[in-house]
Amino acid sequence: MTVTNGYEQSDREQAIKIINLDELEDQARQIIPQGGFGYISEGSEDEWTKARNRAAFNTVQIAPRVLHSVEAPSTSTSVFGVSIKTPVIMAPTAAQGLAHTRGEAATAEGVAAAGTIMSQSTYGTTSIAETAEASKGAPWFFQLYMSNDWEFNEALLDEAKSHGAAAVVLTVDSMQGGYREPDIRNEFQFPLPMANLAAFSETSGKGKGIFEIYAAAKQKITGADVRRVAEYVGLPVIVKGIQDPCDAALALGSGASGIWVSNHGGRQLNGGPGSFDVLPSIARAVNGRVPVIFDSGVRRGSQVFKALASGADLVAIGRPAIYALALGGAQGVRTVFEYLTHEFRIVMQLAGTQTVDDVKRAKLLHY
Amino acid sequence: MTVTNGYEQSDREQAIKIINLDELEDQARQIIPQGGFGYISEGSEDEWTKARNRAAFNTVQIAPRVLHSVEAPSTSTSVFGVSIKTPVIMAPTAAQGLAHTRGEAATAEGVAAAGTIMSQSTYGTTSIAETAEASKGAPWFFQLYMSNDWEFNEALLDEAKSHGAAAVVLTVDSMQGGYREPDIRNEFQFPLPMANLAAFSETSGKGKGIFEIYAAAKQKITGADVRRVAEYVGLPVIVKGIQDPCDAALALGSGASGIWVSNHGGRQLNGGPGSFDVLPSIARAVNGRVPVIFDSGVRRGSQVFKALASGADLVAIGRPAIYALALGGAQGVRTVFEYLTHEFRIVMQLAGTQTVDDVKRAKLLHY
Amino acid sequence: MTVTNGYEQSDREQAIKIINLDELEDQARQIIPQGGFGYISEGSEDEWTKARNRAAFNTVQIAPRVLHSVEAPSTSTSVFGVSIKTPVIMAPTAAQGLAHTRGEAATAEGVAAAGTIMSQSTYGTTSIAETAEASKGAPWFFQLYMSNDWEFNEALLDEAKSHGAAAVVLTVDSMQGGYREPDIRNEFQFPLPMANLAAFSETSGKGKGIFEIYAAAKQKITGADVRRVAEYVGLPVIVKGIQDPCDAALALGSGASGIWVSNHGGRQLNGGPGSFDVLPSIARAVNGRVPVIFDSGVRRGSQVFKALASGADLVAIGRPAIYALALGGAQGVRTVFEYLTHEFRIVMQLAGTQTVDDVKRAKLLHY
Amino acid sequence: MTVTNGYEQSDREQAIKIINLDELEDQARQIIPQGGFGYISEGSEDEWTKARNRAAFNTVQIAPRVLHSVEAPSTSTSVFGVSIKTPVIMAPTAAQGLAHTRGEAATAEGVAAAGTIMSQSTYGTTSIAETAEASKGAPWFFQLYMSNDWEFNEALLDEAKSHGAAAVVLTVDSMQGGYREPDIRNEFQFPLPMANLAAFSETSGKGKGIFEIYAAAKQKITGADVRRVAEYVGLPVIVKGIQDPCDAALALGSGASGIWVSNHGGRQLNGGPGSFDVLPSIARAVNGRVPVIFDSGVRRGSQVFKALASGADLVAIGRPAIYALALGGAQGVRTVFEYLTHEFRIVMQLAGTQTVDDVKRAKLLHY
């Protein structure tokens, strides 16, 4: 246990046994302080949309195919020319120091060990440099929350590019925080510095405090912002937080190289659809032109399968990995990805699909 | 605590902290006497319709739009030429003395402070004059339960007009009380005088007792009654309690200047639809000719959004404000309106809507 | 308390207070012996259909109409030329001695006092003569379970006709008892004689024991049986237990003068539809040629309304009246009918319907 | 109680009383060791599909027909020229020694006594010879899990044929075990030898250990395997585990003589449809060319009826028989089949169906 600003961070580094990802939540609740756990686990308002994220998967069923000559299915796939062992990647989640003293660095290490992709958040508790270092050459994405201060955006994009980010994930669904009650109940304040903000504050010489920068987060985001980021950074830009086909089209028209379907795990707009509800219509709008990444509510191999069969190319998870981070550090994170991939591989076999491409063509039913 | 006829009225006047409007109910239950609380909170019969009021909102979802260039959305709107800070107004609810010793006067004061519209009930425990006074120039509506004694109606309408009511709300769904079990179980009798009835009894010289007037409430209400009230009072008349497009059309043909879609919070006809279920068809019948006001079951910013996006121009709340009245007097009431407007503003931002008019044009989904 | 063959029968005769009909079940459970209560309350198999009977009502909603000029609605109606105060009548239920020492006689007395129609079961614990006597001139129906012994049928029909039955209810859905677990768990045996069977045994001189007669109940029932009964008795024959439009048509073609839509309160075939589910299609098949009576699951005024608006002319209740019989004798039974009619009258007013015929024309919605 | 390798096997042989099949589960839980009970009762992943198996039956309703001249319905039917007393047969389930020391032999004896068909699993704890012997001339099927070692398959098929199997059931939905949490939680290992595997190991002279053979189970199964088995064994081959019409067509085209619709009781692919959901489309694909057998979730007579009315010719049960095996040995098993047939016969009568063929033509409703 490490205590920072009075906040007790886990410093575990150990193997964890996973029966299912859902159970990690209660286990993590035991060791993450209440304020941090509330922040990580919460949804917005009455959490209808957060719950719908899960329930939406049950609106479709996988047709089990049994005479399809499948053996030892392969979960390998690739994105932006990078090969990975599994279509399950890490979603960008902020402030991972709330779960573990090594924060994003440990996550990156575990993700790399599992052979898949890390996403580093603007609001990480470790810096881009540290996370990149921990990835040890494995592919990773940098996630950007745009600031009204373009210099800040440039600084982060420069940093990410110089450390070898494979793509930039531009989050566009968080022009304002959702109304999340646990944070209010807990009177939760971030106890830990955000490394990238602190770094900019120091190096820019502009004398800005972290709070000032945080408050400068951009509300007003348009296609022009997508284009500006893409043109500046010269890396693929994935627009994250898309829930409507028209926004997907707008993002593509503005130079997006990827569409990330997400409702932020039900943390932003409540009263909207489950993320899985909107995936098919967005995938049709994208029509294969760029990769589609999906998140929000994935906990089971069968859900990974359903998302891919509904048009996703990759599936991201967030909270389960953070819970495992608290429980076992990098080893915990690695186990989460390997475990979920294991469940997914069983589903592949039982559904009669040999490859990830087979999964994408699989038939789904509605009962 | 003030004791009137053996009934213990709250006399709190204090700031309240709201996490969500639902929690107010249990908090208020602690301080409002059982009979009064039963009367305020109850629905009719087995309360299917009261419960459906809430559930109906979940039959539609807000499409989250994210590249819409929205910043600091405005909740301002107007009705009958009156500008207000929020589309959330106060529904007329009877006998507010059950919740607070200052009754409607405190409510009016809180509503005015929040920059929106009060509705004063015929069966208020404070008089039209007192409520109007407490509004301090802010706009307010007078709600009329018609009596078979036209003189009584005239007296109330005269009083309301002379004190500056902006409109008259003519309630037409209460030709008889719904079958409400808590009142029967509690053997509940109104412990407090109804100021407007008492005043008429005294000033008319007709020697009628309050019970006599109350019993004279009109069951048989038609379009002709709407017309008669409208012609007499010379103010906009909003017909409240409409749940069917044909009744809306009939009201409009009879001179209504507004349609108030409501099932009385599930207190009247049970076994009918949720109020939100019928809003779209009524809004289509009204077709923008007059303002549509909506109530019954609204507790969340996302629900305000959904109601406006389904054809309402204003949304009214009742019970949550009464609970807050008990908990904090005028300050409590004010906080309820500001809180709900705060939730609504967050939803506006996250749904990509800058103005109330944008909300009205927003797309809803059905999953 | 009266003890007969070791079975403790209620002999209460007192006013009862009803908040709602559902609560009567638990109250009655306190005073009816376990075996008898099990028999009265049970459904068959896993009771899906019994539960569906209730849930089916929530699949339609009453459209509340508010400008319809309604005042003091009338619940009066008539059937076979007999005027009654309410469309709610008594369903035939067997062995009412299980609930009260006076059995069907007390029920008949209470039903008559409420101004509506009693139905006397073949398997009553009081005789046709006693029940007819207790009806004191009020209309009543005789319900026939056919025997393979036609002489037995003739004897019962003769008896019913001679005592003034207004119609014969021929039950056709009980060719065999449903699979009802409480009876098996309780090893329940009827502790009381069945008066009509005992009487036939004595008077026919055929020397048959009750068990022999009971075992002779007819499984194989066809249209020819309907015709034979109708031709023999010369009274209107209502065929009870219809759940399919084709069976309704067949009954009509065989001389039925009424169709009784019922699934026996979920006591017979489980896994079938709720009785209310099938009412509209059967009413369309009948098309107004004969009266349609509906039962199974009715507990609320709004449900009476929905049944009438879906094609029923009369609505019958069973279990709630039997519970009230145990709790208050004839007075209890009377109160049940008056109470339910009271709830129904409120719904009539709030739905904008002045007469039972208005109710039949009312619009229902599906949300 | 018999203890084998530390595992406590029931050795009961006694009459059991059945109120309903569901209750057997809790009763059996008391006497089967935790590991064995987990293995028998579990489904895969979050058990959505296992639960859906039950719920799917409630999506259709039996139309109760009442004037159909039915008396003492007959449950007799036949398959492959073999007459049986009931359309309910025994599904192949592995390792029945977990429930009872006599294992499959006791099951076969009970099934034969009930006049229906036993299915012997490849992975039985008693040998083909023993089970065949216990069947005493009654018809039985042999179920084959294919091995990559064709010699092993031949040995089993030879053995089954020589002992008089009426058909071979080729299971094709278990190319890999489903992800079942109780086994992992209990760290369950089969404590008992599998007789057929052990026998092959000894007699083949190939020196293979049981684990080696078990590990050689074939993942890659195609139509060619169906054809090879059918041509080799010269008995009807029923392909078990079909959940999709195209797989049914493929099996038929590959020489299948029967289609067994099953999702393995929800033990294999989770996130797929309920087995009953897919039955109608598969029956249409088969179109009467070969018998259709159905399992997964059947516990009630009404469910047997619904399955037959949806296109099944026979219905199989697994877990309830295994629970009864633990509770009462051969007598318990016999009672399960007789009990369920009893429930089914009541439903036949109440639905107006005289024969199993009538049931197949019965109308189902969807509410």
From TrEMBL, chains A, B, C, D:
* FMN hydroxy acid dehydrogenase domain residues: 13-367
- Gene3D superfamilies tied to this protein: Aldolase class I
Question: What Pfam families does the database record attribute to this sequence?
Answer: FMN_dh
Active-site residue numbers: 264 (proton acceptor)
Question: Required co-factor?
Answer: FMN
Which keywords describe this protein according to UniProt?
Answer: Flavoprotein, FMN, Oxidoreductase
Which residues make up the binding site for glyoxylate?
39, 145, 180, 264, 267
Entry keyword Cell division: no
Organism superkingdom: Bacteria
One MF annotation (Gene Ontology) recorded for this entry: FMN binding
By its UniProt entry, which InterPro entries does this protein fall under?
Aldolase_TIM, Alpha-hydoxy_acid_DH_FMN, FMN-dep_DH, FMN_HAD, FMN_hydac_DH_AS
- Residues bound to FMN are 92-94, 121, 143, 171, 240, 262, 295-299, 318-319
The similarity comment for this entry is: Belongs to the FMN-dependent alpha-hydroxy acid dehydrogenase family.
Instruction: Tell me the protein's name.
Output: L-lactate oxidase
Query: Which species?
Result: Propionibacterium cyclohexanicum
